[in-house]
């Protein structure tokens, strides 16, 4: 009769750990596939909007402001919708730089971060390829520094707008509070605002996958593509560093109850109520004690 193995048997523990690692890896691969799908959806709609602007502007009647507003709106709304669809599955990141920020903040593991980044980069290529195949004209989604914008300026512009986007994800999505279910709205609006700022200067990438996909499909037409790797990566570091400082300061102490939905925590600005309460308290103190 074979002896029974105890729960502390090293071979059993080793097998259990291997099974756990395999299960975690399968989960990471499945999550990466969802990130790929969401990235394709997000960038397909966004690139399609940019392609539509290029197609419609052949008449030459639209102003640059109108074009920029349209592109900013389609990118912001596309991220809002796509991120909300996939928010409960993977968080709806669709951006290697957001993935790096979440890794540095301890939200996701290194393995999941690497798989996410690969899936998002491939998703950017797939979305750009689909737009090129489906819609007429040359691909209009490439990013490049604008006229009179040098590479140093482009890097720092991309750094700051990427930091704003990553910080919105950290504060609205990673931090858990009453508004967390609506994080995609805030993140989408952040992308919209950053596009309004940076489209004329850098094309407003703030997402290496967004710049990489069209560059691959069109053959890297611009030698300054590295800007869209360095700038957004620095933005991830900046956002995570600032988020860490906020956590160190325990920022929620400065405005307690900001996301409360309980009406008793609302302020009562009526002075008459407080005066009446003070008068009534004074009367009770002066009243003689009954035998």
Describe the structure.
- This protein has one domain (22-55, 62-254): Glycerol uptake facilitator protein.
- Helix content is 68%, strand content 0%.
- It is built from nine helices and no strands.
- α1 (10-56) runs parallel beside α4 (110-134).
- It is globular.
- It starts with 9 loop residues before the first helix and ends in a 5-residue tail after the last helix.
How would you summarize the topology of this molecule?
Blueprint: H1 10-56, H2 64-86, H3 96-104, H4 110-134, H5 151-174, H6 183-202, H7 208-218, H8 227-248, H9 271-286
Helix pairs in contact: 1-2, 1-4, 2-6, 3-4, 3-5, 3-8, 4-7, 5-6, 5-8
What's this, in brief?
The chain has one domain (22-55, 62-254): Glycerol uptake facilitator protein.
Characteristic key phrases:
mainly alpha; 291 residues; Glycerol uptake facilitator protein; disordered N terminus; single chain
Q: What's the number of structural domains?
A: 1
| Rg (CA only) | 26 Å
Order of helices and strands: HHHHHHHHH
Structural class: mainly alpha
Approximate helicity band: 55-70%
Assembly form of the protein: single chain
Q: Based on CA inertia axes, which overall geometry fits?
A: globular
Which CATH class? Mainly Alpha
CATH T-level topology: Glycerol uptake facilitator protein
Instruction: Give the CATH H-level superfamily.
Output: Glycerol uptake facilitator protein
Largest sheet: none
Work out the helix count. 9
**Intertermini distance:** 88 Å
Low-confidence stretches: 1-6
Query: Would you identify the CATH architecture?
Result: Up-down Bundle
Please count the beta strands (DSSP E, at least 2 residues each): 0
